[in-house]
């Protein structure tokens, strides 16, 4: 999960380099925007996807990432063979699209898509339940905008089918994180599948409660 910072030399754009799925991934961050920075939870989730590629096979799977930020997780999922939709707030889409395009063009089986997603807003119009066929929902460090946690929960619920698997890396900072997990468990079966105590990060797998197969 190592990263390397490349300073600006000739160009005016600096980037950080990561190595996942057999590729060097160059990520440009927007330092003035909280959501466009690579946080440790994203590295944890990328590392997990790479090292558990047989157990959680991404090839030809329909995957959506919420709160995609810089796009690193979506890029790794794409390099692993997934059909990816990377989503975030409108002000982040430019940098997100730039990173995804530069790191996936001519490298991926399926070209990733970038879409706007404001939690809890216009979900039926932009992501109608009838066309939600996501095999996986990926999320890294999305529990930070505390005033919008109910909308986040609503978004998870809306995007999930009975068979959808959520892979969610979360860094615990405040008591509100624990409260959100409690609310989340009212709607989803939640299993901790990995832990990184030194980073205070946990990785969860979740599926909707009351599934037909349950």
TrEMBL record:
Record flagged with keyword Oxidoreductase: no
InterPro entries associated with the record: Methyltransf_16, SAM-dependent_MTases_sf
Name of the molecule in the record: Methyltransferase small domain-containing protein
GO BP terms: methylation
Annotated GO MF terms: protein methyltransferase activity
Keywords noted in UniProt: Methyltransferase, S-adenosyl-L-methionine, Transferase
